[in-house]
Amino acid sequence: MEDLSLHILDIAENSIKAKAKNIEIMFEENTEKDMTSLEISDDGMGMDNKTLYKVLNPFFTTKNTRKVGLGIPLLSEAAKAADGKFSIESQPGKGTRLKAMFKSSHIDKKPIGDIASTLISIISGHPEVRLVYTHKLNGKKYELDTKEIKSQLNGIPIHSPEVLKIIKININKGIDSMRRQK
Amino acid sequence: MAKLTIDDLKKIKEKAKRRTELREGGDYRAKVTVHMGTCGIAAGARKIMNAFMDELEQSKSSDILLTNSGCAGLCSREPMATVELSGQAPIKYIDLTEQKTKEIFQKHVIGGNVVKKYALGKGSEKTDA
Question: Would you say residue B93 lies in a domain?
């Protein structure tokens, strides 16, 4: 994976496979602490301890289309390569939460990438899922909640091309404006 | 906050509504599925999704569904997409680029002609959508 936004897309697809109805993504950048963190939680089917232990193993997958499962190991390795940490917890029937932390200034810390394209891909492919994205940057905050957007749309599908386009602009503007503020 | 402004909504509402109404009562004529497993994403599936989205937005079509699915089991040929026109066998396209995607959208999704040179073959794995 080239950047963190692609990891987010990949992990969110796991949540969807686990039949999640709600996915919460929290991305935080803290310059003072030299830390970037990513937390993704869902209310999907969750995993028992035995399965949870196995997901960090690249040779484990629940799929029958291929024999390796790389999504979670790749993110975990990306965190460790950037002097960070990775943790995952899960409860069957309740959902899964994972957290990856990175040292922002580390040379091996992957760039953030195109968050807007990632979120739009998730919404477009799975409009029924409620997606909440929070991006914090040194105390400033941008939030996107698809439930809130849907309530403003008066029945127009959230995955209409026109709607996706303005959501994408909104995300890019929202994140940009945090970066520009001093 | 991600509040869409009244202006934002006004701008798109009529257009989006028209597109939605056109479809009501009828099913989607075409379904385009971009494969977004770990393999697909690592190989550039998101760019392909973006390219299909741009094409769809620019076309005035109201009867095309764009969605995504997981790994199709042929990781070395990602990015992949499946195009399914109603009543026809699904066609899988492999080793996609943005350029190929545009061509497939215009010729197959809109025009109804399979772009054989980019196709793997006929058939599809099960998708949720």
Answer: yes
The CA distance from B36 to B104, in Å, is: 18
- A54-111, pLDDT tens digit by residue? 888 777 676 665 555 688 999 999 999 999 999 999 999 999 999 999 999 999 999 9
pLDDT digits (tens, 9 = 90+) for B56-82: 989 978 889 999 998 888 889 999 999
User: Which structural domain range is residue B62 located in?
Assistant: 26-122
How are strands ordered across the β-sheet holding A85-91? Answer: A85-91, A95-103, A35-42, A22-30, A130-137, A140-145
Q: Residue B76 falls within a domain, yes or no?
A: yes
Which CATH number characterizes residue A122's domain?
3.30.565.10
Helices (runs of H) and strands (runs of E) counted in chain B = 4, 5
Q: How many domains does chain B have?
A: 1
Domains held by chain A: number: 1
Contact B16 A170 (CB under 8 A): no
In a domain, B9, yes or no: no
- Bond from prior residue into A58 cis (ω within 30 degrees of 0): no
With an 8 Å Cβ cutoff, is A146 touching chain B? no
Within 22-51 of B, beta carbons closer than 8 Å to A belong to 34, 36-39, 41-42, 46, 49-50
CB–CB of B12 and A125 under 8 A? no
Q: Which range of residues forms the domain containing residue A102?
A: 4-180
- pTM equals 0.89
CA distance B111 to A126: 26
Q: What share of chain B is helix, strand, coil (3-state, %, to 5)?
A: 45, 20, 35
In this complex, do A145 and B53 lie within 8 Å of one another by their Cβ atoms?
no
